[in-house]
Amino acid sequence: MQKTLIILGVSIILAGLLWPWLSKLPFGNLPGDIVIDKPGFKLFFPITSMLLVSGLISLIMWLLRK
Hints:
By secondary structure, the protein is of the alpha+beta class. The chain is built from 3 helices and 2 strands.
């Protein structure tokens, strides 16, 4: 558990440091992401992005277990 928390903390720090470059990626505007934009109301539901992140995390965890 300690190793997992340390890896999670380091990855959050790296994401924070690399945020200026990461925010320029087209991630979050993928086809399949739902955006409802009305006056006074905005809903963003990133279905495709969530599936991509889930698959990536599952792959990384699977590789770390081996």
